[in-house]
User: Which sequence fits this backbone?
């Protein structure tokens, strides 16, 4: 079981739609959350239909900016608790069983909105007694190690976020596959990379899903990487057994290779 969250920076680009489809095929998510698509509901419904989701909820963009989309499969039941242009707060159940409160976020990019945004989210926890997970683009760099290049991080912004996590009893789920989730797509001295996308979980959520991990997928057609929350952990790939193909006997080099191998030192394992 998995959840995909991606700041896709628009879905009008064919490369972006292709990258989304590839991600959905690979991870087969129960839920997909997209932010900053810059497209209306009618357009997004056509894409949803081609990717076999049964349920959906949208927050339309303001003009040509923003926009949120939430898609889910028939195995998932989602109740929308509250929504805005910056989040969709939900209660999620899978196969009839309560799973958790899941808040899908696109954190405000403007300083004037950041502190109030995290204060509002903090109140959500006070209204809920179920396990809580937050996933998406939080738009804050939490510490200096989460940034490479450019000016030092804004400590006030980071503290607002850290205070929210502390009061709400949340921890960050590590994400495998890279240190940063956003880049300005520039090179050399102008390059900046930051960890803006996160998965935050409550302690009871962590106990309920002890194998859960976050995975970072390569960024394609966006300056953000998709992040994937895999609830049941990564499955180890089985080593393929060697199988001799009878058609190899038709090739002369097969006999040469076998003869050389038999003629070698039996104790040589190289």
Assistant:
């Amino acid at each position: 079981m998995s959840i995909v969250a991606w700041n896709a920076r628009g879905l009008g680009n064919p490369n972006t739609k292709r990258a989304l489809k590839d991600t959905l095929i690979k991870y087969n998510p129960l839920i997909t959350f997209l932010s900053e698509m810059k497209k209306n509901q009618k357009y997004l419904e056509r894409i949803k239909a081609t990717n076999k989701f049964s349920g959906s909820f949208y927050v339309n963009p303001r003009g040509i900016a923003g926009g949120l989309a939430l898609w889910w499969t028939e195995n998932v039941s989602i109740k929308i608790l509250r929504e805005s242009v910056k989040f969709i707060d939900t209660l999620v159940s899978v196969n009839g069983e309560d799973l958790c409160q899941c808040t899908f976020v696109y954190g405000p990019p403007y300083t004037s909105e950041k502190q109030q945004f995290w204060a509002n989210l903090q109140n959500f926890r006070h209204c809920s007694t179920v396990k809580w997970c937050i996933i998406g683009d939080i738009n804050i760099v939490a510490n200096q190690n989460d940034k490479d290049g450019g000016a030092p991080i804004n400590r006030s912004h980071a503290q607002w976020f850290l205070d929210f996590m502390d009061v709400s009893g949340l921890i960050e789920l590590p994400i495998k596959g890279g240190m940063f989730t956003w880049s300005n797509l520039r090179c050399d001295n102008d390059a900046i990379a930051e960890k803006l996308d996160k998965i935050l979980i409550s302690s009871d959520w962590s106990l309920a899903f002890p194998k859960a991990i976050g995975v970072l997928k390569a960024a394609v057609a966006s300056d953000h990487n998709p992040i994937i929350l895999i609830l049941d952990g990564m499955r180890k790939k089985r080593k393929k057994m060697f199988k001799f193909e009878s058609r190899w006997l038709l090739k002369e080099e097969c006999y040469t290779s076998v003869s050389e191998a038999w003629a070698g030192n039996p104790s040589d394992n190289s």
